[in-house]
Amino acid sequence: MAVLLIAEHNNKELRPFTLNAATAASQIDEDVHAVIIGQNSAEAAKQLSELQVVKKVLSVEAAHYENFTAENFAPVIVKLAENYSHIVCSANTFGKNLMPRIAAHLDTSQVSDIIKVISPDTFLRPIYAGNAFATIKSSDAKKCVTIRPTSFDPCDSSGGSASIEKVEAGEEFSNTKFIKREEIKSDRPELGTARIVVSGGRGMQSGDNFKLITEVADKLGAAIGASRAAVDAGYISNDHQVGQTGKVVVPDLYIAIGISGAIQHLAGMKESKIIVAINKDGEAPIFSVADYGLEADLFEAIPQFMEELNKLNTIQK
Amino acid sequence: MKILVAVKRVIDYNVQIRVKEDGTGVVTDNVKMSTNPPDDNAIEEAVKIKEAGKATEVVAVTVGEEKAQETVRKALAVGADRGIHVKADGILEPLAVSKILQKIVDKEKPDLVFMGKQAIDDDCNQTGQMLSALLNWPQATFASKIEVKDNKLEVTREIDEGLETIEINVPAIVTCDLRLNEPRYASLPNIMKAKKKPIEEIVASDLGVDVSPRLEQLKVEEPPKRKAGIKVANVAELVQKLKNEAKVI
User: Fold this and answer.
1) What's the ipTM?
2) Fold (CATH) for A2-166
3) What is the pTM for the complete model shown?
């Protein structure tokens, strides 16, 4: 039986992580079908049909699908699940919200946030915020799997020519009403998906001093992070918190400034590709995970860092 | 309105996790345990709603071994009225926990069920959504703001793109984000008082639900270690390394 991928989109276009989830789905079984549920989402459905790994697209449209409510989506997918061995989706807030609702209806124990497909029934997933990796084998007849997008490369967005089949819509769930969505419009990339993250810790000493972090982040086109200590001290709002109880980030470059490297912070960033630590305490635990450590007073180092960055002809964005 | 809050006992978030040498799991003996952090937010929110006169009773429930009762006792110390401890040993998957909670909901008939959005041990992020599915109730996951209006809740949810606001009719499930509130600490007099509050004990097997695991944990291992890095002498060397060696800027 084939694998059913649930596409994430905004009715106009696919959201990028759908391509990463498609790669994971194709590692489970080559026969990948994708379902797109929305309203006036024909353009996104067309994009889905062009993904190289997708063999067939199922399109479901109705007004009550416009805002991606899990209560409306789940019954549609549960009905389609009859023909599939696996249901796959990204483990971002869309998939995290939706998949367990499907799994419970199918009486399946979901495997969340996998980072590797070992075989069609066995997966690797981080537990304890990435402090341990568990190999999990599922004995359920139908498997519901969410994938960590950053652990799989996006599939080719062209080269496919899947057929698009219309599927009948389900009923509306009347006890949940969508009111509004406020997308954070910022020139700055989102913390969870940014290529570069610049984070400050208690060493910043005040909220005002976080301006220094902002300057570096602006220069590098980076997102701004913070340790729990900096958040607890009130230097910055908690939506910037990186760590076990905040966000887990895996950027190409993570710059930790004035962060000692408490366990709970390390859990949120130690999978980053390159880690830089700037701290005046040479014994700080952050240096044990840093690729490049600079033992220096951050109030001297940051202005120098800006100066050096300004000397560069080009900076990758 | 009656609010049921589910809490889980997990390894404290400040503890360095150690993987057992035989690969069967992580070391839990002699390790500090606490309430799962966002479950504290769930309790706090329920208590605040009661203090605002919009709820009549807050009941804390946990599912797990003998010592899991500590988390219920802690919830009682910060304002829950009574507790329920469903005793169960061994690994319980979120599907099993949601089936047990469904039975408790049938019995207690709460208007709202609150819990943390995710447990910091298995990081599954499933139980609330599964319970909503089993009950066919609305679900408001990753809540960072809750407004109670008659028989409705207006909930602001943390989503990747920003914030989403939905309105749900009660009965409903809400899973709580850390941003929802600032959990209070229990005062000593309240800890003493909590010792007198009732905790009902129920044996999971008496509930008649199938809780047998569907997933087999073949191995638990340490994540790959980072290779040792270097210390750079100055900022100029750092920038040069980032540009020419790591090629990330």
Assistant:
1) 0.94
2) Rossmann fold (3.40.50)
3) 0.90
